[in-house]
Design brief:
Blueprint: H1 6-11, H2 14-17, H3 25-28, H4 57-67, E1 74-77, H5 80-91, E2 98-103, H6 108-115, E3 119-124, H7 133-139, E4 144-150, H8 162-171, E5 175-179, E6 201-206, E7 219-222, H9 225-234, H10 242-254, H11 258-277, E8 282-285, E9 292-297, H12 300-309, E10 315-316, E11 326-330, H13 334-348
Parallel strand pairs: 2-3, 2-4, 4-5, 5-6
Antiparallel strand pairs: 1-7, 6-7, 8-9, 9-11, 10-11
Helix pairs in contact: 4-10, 5-6, 11-13
The structure holds pyridoxal-5'-phosphate.
């Protein structure tokens, strides 16, 4: 039995289904030209004296143009992390419900679960970091509300097989959250075009990676309108400030170098892999479709510390499942990557 839109409401926590959301002044009157005496703002006009648009209509319209997703299917948050947290608060009853996450993956799923007092069950990926379908399906129980997938996955860098994701979407009676933070660096398309087919699919993307805007904090979630409506009910009324809305709008309308930078990062990724894979101390470099590579190497902790001493900071991931002796290295500029390569050579010399 596959998931239908009717299932969404029944999955939502009772207190959220019956919630009367806060109606802000800017929700009630949407016109632009008026004497605004409704929100207790300071009347003296400046760039910031007014509250921002709570539902970010103009920004969503512009994002819609590049992502091909309608505004009604789009939530904008203070980074993807806000979307993750909201999904817990909408669907998971603390102390009762649980969620699943592939393992290893992005650490915030577990932190958010802990904060919300929700059990997170980890399902180990296969040794080549693919979904173990049987293990995942077996881990689902009547109280499993969310399933976190990440493709390209952090920290492994690989895309998850689409067929496995589809099988989970079709068999799971909860919400599949597919984190596509790194999708712009991948060689194949993500699953945005599949959204209409799967009402239980939530896709997360972000402006923090390919767009180089980690500092402005803007994350996106794409999903069925009913899910987006709940996310908008539960979020803080003015969750995206004016500075962020304006800056991202400006970048969306004027930036022409996003694709060039992404291509440069992808070609640097290939170059870096070729350069270090010949070193006999590099045990394995996992295939990456993200802006980082996972490298299994000899004396990984020592190498990590050697690099830190030289002010090159990578991420030691050796304590994560399937990542023994692994460092995760973000692709930098050609100059930064060159320095990294030199230090690696020097360390093993
Ligand atoms: C898989 C994944 N999702 C989300 C994020 C965070 O995204 P944001 O900056 O939009 O909160 C990261 C950041 O490292 C990530 O690796």
């Amino acid at each position: 039995m596959s998931f239908t839109t009717n299932n969404i409401n029944t999955l939502v926590r009772d207190n959220i289904r019956t919630l009367k959301p806060y109606s802000s002044a800017r929700n009630e009157y949407k016109g632009k030209q008026a004497v605004f005496l409704d929100a207790n703002e300071n009347p003296y006009e400046s760039l910031y004296n007014r509250y921002p648009d709570p539902l970010q209509a103009e920004l969503k319209q512009e994002i819609s143009r590049i992502k091909g997703v309608a505004s009604k299917n789009m939530f904008l948050g203070n980074g993807s992390d806000e979307a993750i947290d909201l999904l817990f608060r909408i669907f998971c009853e603390p102390g009762k419900d649980n969620v699943l996450s592939i393992d290893p993956s992005y650490g915030m799923y577990e932190v958010c679960a802990d904060i919300n007092n929700i059990e997170l069950k980890k399902v180990l990926l296969t040794p080549d970091f693919q979904i173990d379908l049987n293990a995942t399906i077996n881990a689902i129980d009547a109280n499993t509300k969310l399933l976190f997938l990440c493709s390209p996955n952090n920290p492994s860098g690989n895309m998850l097989e689409k067929q496995s994701i589809i099988e989970l979407l079709e068999s799971f009676q909860g919400i599949v959250v597919l984190d596509e933070a790194y999708i712009d660096f991948a060689n194949s398309e993500g699953m945005v075009s599949d959204l209409e087919r799967y009402p239980n699919l939530v896709i997360m993307q972000t402006f923090s990676k390919a767009w180089g805007l980690a500092g402005v904090r803007l994350g996106m979630a794409f999903a069925h309108e009913q899910i987006i409506t709940y996310m908008n009910y539960v979020k803080y009324p003015y969750n995206i400030n004016i500075l962020t809305q304006k800056e991202v709008l400006k970048q969306l309308r004027s930036r022409s170098n996003v694709e060039t930078q992404v291509n440069e990062i992808k070609s640097e990724r290939t170059k870096l892999v070729h350069t270090i894979e010949s070193n006999e101390n590099i045990v394995k470099i996992f295939h990456s479709e993200a802006n980082f590579i996972l490298v299994k190497c000899k004396r990984s902790r020592e190498l990590y510390e050697y690099l830190v001493e030289r002010k090159v900071i990578v991420r030691d991931r050796s304590k994560q499942a399937l990542c023994e002796d692994c460092l995760r290295i973000t692709i930098g500029t050609p100059k930064e990557n060159k320095a990294l390569v030199e230090y690696i050579k020097e360390f093993y010399a």
